[in-house]
Amino acid sequence: MFQLDEEQRLILQSVREIVQKEIKPRAAALDETGEFPWDIVRIFAKNDILNPLLPRKYGGVEVSTYTFCMIVEEIAKACASSALLLVAQAEGTFPILYGADESLQEKYLKRLAGGSQVLIGLGAIEPSAGSGIFSLRTRAELRGDQYILQGEKCFAQNGSVADFLVLYAYTDRSKGSHGVSALVVEKGAPGLVFRRNENKMGMRGTIYSEIFLENLAVPRENLIGQEGEGFSNMLKTLSASRLFTAAQAVGLAEGAMEEALSYARRRVQFGKTISHHAPIQFMIAEMATGIESARLLTYQTAFLFDQGEWKKAGTHAAMAKLIASDTAMKVTTDAVQIMGGYGYMKDYPVERMMRDAKLTQIYTGTNQIMKLIIGRDLVGIS
Amino acid sequence: MFDQTSFIPTDELNNFRDRIQRVARDKMAPQAPWVDEEEFFNREVESLLWDLGLLTLTFPERYRGYGKDRMVALCIAVEEIAKVCASSALLLIIQAVGSFPIIHGGSNELKQKYLPQMSEGHKLVAYLVTEPTAGSDITSIQTTAVREGNEYILNGSKCFATSGGVAGIYSVLAKTSEGKGSSSFFLVERESAGLSIGRTESKLGQRGSNTTEVFLENVRVPVENLLGREGDGFLIAMKDFDMSRPAIAAQALGIAEGAFEAIIQFIKERHAFGKPIADHPVIQTILADSAILIEASRGLVYRAAILNDEGKNNTKLASMAKCFAGDAAMKITTDAIDAIQVLSGYGFLKDFQVERMFRDAKLTQIFEGTNQIQRLVIARQILKESM
């Protein structure tokens, strides 16, 4: 499983080159300005890695989930925001890929092929809900050939820059979770209103938008699958998001450890480089051990996805996300610590990585929620 | 919320805390977000701190010092201010740290000349010890002071100097000879020829504090400006740490309490998953863990401070306080973001102040000796005591 095949080797090698040449030098500026990285979109699109999961029949490369995780990891080593761009695309693609019928897939997934710069967004979270994703308020009412949507979404990834978005809404509130449906909404549709993009501590080169749905009309054909399938669709998508977050966190941690290591080998205090001091070696040892275990669990989870073992993959994704993001938080915090005053300054990337890492503990469900999911699954309470 | 009176020896100090708490909430809290955003050194807050007498707390009484409980008073002030704005609290600490070599090493004449420039003339002081290649290892400084007649000539580069660009007076550590016991402190005026301010650093947190490089090029100071005797530098720096580390710990404690209050505020406002969020075990766990760490930090901070005021050795407790409270602040601010996130999905956003507190907290694990160094200090003290 951990032996790379020729295709994986080539893909990762080319990703690594692009990251070194074009992504890494941009990371600090993306963070500083907090602007959406259109240039990175172009670079990824040009090199055909904006949508690596896209099936061949829609003109994609169709890599495995495992390969996708390694790509995300590679990019996150240098710039977590840029890695999130791929993750956002995948998260938007997922509900369509695994829930929509052939014709809806044709309609939207084909637009992602080749050097396409088309962006997808996902609107799953609502203001009153937070981690309580089940307390959805948005409603979709069928009127003739259209669904009319009312409600609001927040933290919609790629929200205001997306060409189309997947949204979740109640089509029948009385059925509870079986009354939730997923729909595809196109940019520019009347009633799709974007308010502000959030000002964030980290992952600043990404966009999270508030969205208001004011009598938004969506053609009936844009329903993903059948009415009532939205909830299971959302759970699958969330599981995938958690896995991708884990991969991103592993990369982030690796990037921070590399920085700390190279600093520790250079920095002389008390007559020798600080890499000679046992407390520093302990910190490095804990970093590497955490990263290796998080990476293994992440790859194993990706493997479960590729095998289609959804149930097991869901719990594993929560575990991978938990361990990888906690590791990223600890490793980046310790990387700043090893680099001391220098690490705290904006001239070095580790303080940015520390801010970025915090979000991996939060999004796609906070780690507190991950523990609930894992715990409930193990004790047998749903 | 917390019993803040049990460690505090006098009613006077408790009243002192109340007064500062009010001003901090009314006048400083509203400034904290934008000061952070703009990386702005806020002269308005500085003048407020002068008015309150908080920038001279550790001075002798006749120069507006607090008196015998000065260290506890400093910790109280730092803690209360750090609850709302860590950067403003840092200004108090650095003023105490920078003036320490002058107060404890300067001759009476020197003190009569310079302390009023601070207490009456409102000059800030900076502490120039750290160099690009000398962080935790202060014995490896490269800055030199060479005696020539009635003057010393100073040459070198200092970095990460808090208040470096806004201070009027500097306590500078320089080598006066080779080998052990080779460094000495000097008082240097901002207007001295050859002293220049380098670039201002952009930082992760405590962004309302001013951090700069300072360069010394053939800076001439009169021999009277030597603080203590030649070779006393290391000793003075160590004594200074005994005072500064509890103060940094108090800052960490304040940041942690600020984050804790933010969680409480949220709990009052929110319901989640259909019931009052106060009922959620996830939230209760975060609350309990945070409160344990806060109470334990407080114990260490004020014990270390009281020992210092009593003139007793507090090196071990000072390092323990700094180490524990810094780590606790980091954990509590991290968890506070999570808690608010669990409750609302907003902890990560700049609109909510915990993300700033999280960034601010990180520095408390680093400056005045990283927490790794603190552990070495603690272990050495224990070994010394038990041998």
The mean pLDDT of chain A is 92
Q: How many independent structural domains of chain B? A: 3
Helix content of chain B: 40-55%
Neighbour order of strands in the largest sheet of chain B: 1-4-5-8
Q: Biggest β-sheet of chain B, characterized? A: 4 strands, mixed
Widest sheet, order of strands of chain A: 1-4-5-8
Q: Work out the strand percent of chain B.
A: 15-25%
Relative helix content of chain A = 40-55%
CATH domain fold name of the largest domain in chain A:
Butyryl-CoA Dehydrogenase, subunit A, domain 3
Q: What would CATH call the homologous superfamily of the largest domain in chain A?
A: Butyryl-CoA Dehydrogenase, subunit A, domain 3
- In angstroms, what is the radius of gyration of chain A? 21 Å
- N-to-C SSE string of chain B, H for helix and E for strand: HHHHHHEEEEEEEEHEEHHHH
Mean pLDDT of chain B: 92
How much of the residues of chain A is beta strand, in percent?
15-25%
Tell me the number of structural domains of chain A.
Answer: 3
Kindly describe this structure.
The complex is a heterodimer of chains A (382) and B (387). Chain A is α+β, with helices and mostly antiparallel strands and 382 residues long. Chain A has three domains: 6-112, Orthogonal Bundle (Butyryl-Coa Dehydrogenase, subunit A, domain 1); 120-228, Butyryl-CoA Dehydrogenase, subunit A, domain 2, CATH 2.40.110.10; 231-379, Butyryl-CoA Dehydrogenase, subunit A, domain 3. Chain A is built from eleven helices and ten strands. Chain A has helices at residues 6-23, 27-33, 38-46, 65-78, 80-99, 102-109, 230-266, 278-306, 310-344, 350-360, 367-379, and strands at residues 120-123, 139-143, 146-157, 164-170, 180-186, 192-197, 208-219, 223-224, 268-269, 272-273. With 387 residues, chain B is α+β, with helices and mostly antiparallel strands. Chain B folds into three domains: 11-119, Orthogonal Bundle (Butyryl-Coa Dehydrogenase, subunit A, domain 1), CATH 1.10.540; 125-233, Butyryl-CoA Dehydrogenase, subunit A, domain 2, CATH 2.40.110; 234-386, Butyryl-CoA Dehydrogenase, subunit A, domain 3. Chain B is 53% helix and 15% strand. Chain B has helices spanning 11-28, 32-38, 43-51, 70-84, 86-105, 108-119, 233-269, 281-309, 315-344, 354-364, 371-386, and strands spanning 125-128, 144-148, 151-162, 169-175, 183-189, 195-200, 211-222, 226-227, 271-272, 275-276. In chain B, the strands form three sheets. A four-stranded mixed sheet of chain B has the order 1-4-5-8, covered by helices on one side. A four-stranded antiparallel sheet of chain B has the order 2-3-7-6, with no helix packed on it. Chain B has a two-stranded antiparallel ribbon with strand order 9-10. The termini of chain B are far apart. Chains A and B meet through strand 9, helix 8, helix 9, helix 10 and helix 11 of A and helix 9, helix 10 and helix 11 of B.
